[in-house]
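Open question from group meeting: does this chain pack into something compact, or does most of it stay loose? Before anyone orders reagents, we agreed to write out a predicted structure and look at it together. Recording both the input and the output here so the notebook holds the full record.
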Amino acid sequence: MTELDVPKLQRRLAEFAAARNWQQYHTPKNLVAALSVEASELVEIFQWLTPEESARVMNDPERAPRVTDEVADVLAYLLQVCEVLGIDALAALDAKIDRNERRFPVGEGS
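Structure tokens returned:
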């Protein structure tokens, strides 16, 4: 697995938007709405698949590239949301995992 340089990706996304004068549209509300749309497009790919088919989706030469593209779109919008709101995505995830480990201890409810 490749280690991601999140700040570098966020800079690239910001530069991409700035070159096209799109920053004016990149408000938290608009970015969250776009994130929701992209997540829905990812859901759409899996919508009518059986659990077994969904587990093999990356073996499907037609669906695999679509899944990859939609995952990239979701991540791009999520990183942009974090950028405009000043959220460190990796620190937020790390803290959330810590809270979940305390909230759902091993052996309880499994």
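Observations to bring back to the group:
Helices lie at 6-19, 28-46, 51-55, 63-85, 89-103.
The chain has five helices and no strands.
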